[in-house]
Design goal:
Its EC number is 3.1.3.48. With 262 residues, the protein is an alpha+beta fold. It is 21% helix and 15% strand. The chain folds into three domains: 57 residues, Protein tyrosine phosphatase superfamily (Protein-Tyrosine Phosphatase, Chain A, Alpha-Beta Complex); 116 residues, Metal Binding Protein, Guanine Nucleotide Exchange Factor, Chain A, CATH 2.170.150; 39 residues, no CATH class. Strands 3-8-5-4 form a four-stranded antiparallel β-sheet, with no helix packed on it. Helix 1 packs across helix 2 and helix 1 runs parallel beside helix 3. It is elongated, with a radius of gyration of 24 Å. It starts with a helix and ends in a 41-residue tail after the last strand.
């Protein structure tokens, strides 16, 4: 009928050949000569993804497209009331964008201090403004909202599936506990639910892989900066003891700071 599939292919062509076009503007251009042109919602969502990816010629190997395909597998499995046959562990996949700028957050087991997740694998979500605010549908995609939240009301950290969860997720259950991967610890640190979980702030995460804030510590690591006069840095971006400061003195240990330089 020349309404959905063929229009989708034409829009994709326009997006690649004329980068100034958006999905909406390309569709409007086509509708000038073909008023019934109207791709279905699924095709429109894929076109938006294609535009965000930069309209590559090879989309099959693109990490974002692979993630989209995996979401479809998860949706089909959940519709059948089953856990997905395979799990995409984000720390085993190619990451986009390289090292993020700014402070990096590490989540560590409170009992044994084992690092469980870092900033690239955390899912940020925006808490509801009030208890009466509308709650997003449980059919939301795996990735949550992008806005930086105020997590004061949240009792859980949500993250993407990571390889240390494999023993729990390989059981093929729809929900269960998450334990610290340190075999000498094995503390219960959270839980997972393929059908989704509602955060204490009111936002629904689907699927949900959560760490309870009372079971983990959140450590902020400052990005390293180039030191003048060859001063070194430790792993948390804190100047090493004995490193020279800007005035040429000696930086004191933490317990003696504030008493001046030697």
């Amino acid at each position: 009928m020349g309404k959905s599939r063929s229009v989708t292919v034409t829009i994709a062509y326009l997006l690649r050949q004329y980068p100034e076009h958006t999905v909406a503007s390309a569709l409007s251009l086509i509708q000038e000569s073909r008023p019934i042109a109207e791709p279905n919602d699924g095709f429109m969502a894929q076109l938006e993804l294609y535009k965000e990816m930069g309209c590559p010629r090879d989309i099959e190997a693109h990490p974002r497209y692979q993630r989209w395909l995996y979401r479809q597998e998860v949706d089909v499995a959940l519709a059948a009331g089953m856990a997905p046959e395979r799990v995409r562990f984000e720390d085993e996949e190619t990451q986009e964008g390289g090292i993020s700028e700014g402070n990096e957050v590490e989540l560590r087991c409170r009992k044994c201090r084992r690092t469980l997740a870092t900033s690239p694998y955390l899912i940020t979500h925006l808490p509801s403004a009030s208890k009466t605010a509308p709650t997003p549908s449980p059919k939301s995609p795996i990735a949550s909202l992008d806005s930086p939240p105020d997590h004061v009301a949240c009792t859980h950290h949500f993250l993407h599936p990571l390889s240390w969860m494999r023993p729990a997720l390989d059981q093929g259950l729809l929900s269960g506990r998450l334990e610290c991967p340190n075999q000498k610890c094995l503390a219960q640190i959270g839980r997972y639910a393929w059908q989704g979980m509602r955060c204490s702030c009111g936002i629904w995460i689907l699927p949900a892989f959560s760490l309870h804030k009372g079971r983990v510590d959140e450590v902020t690591k400052r990005p390293e900066k180039v030191q003048s006069q060859g001063a070194g840095k430790d792993g948390f971006g804190v100047a090493s003891v004995g490193a020279a400061d800007e005035s040429g003195g000696i930086r004191l240990p933490p317990g003696m700071r504030g008493k001046g330089n030697l």
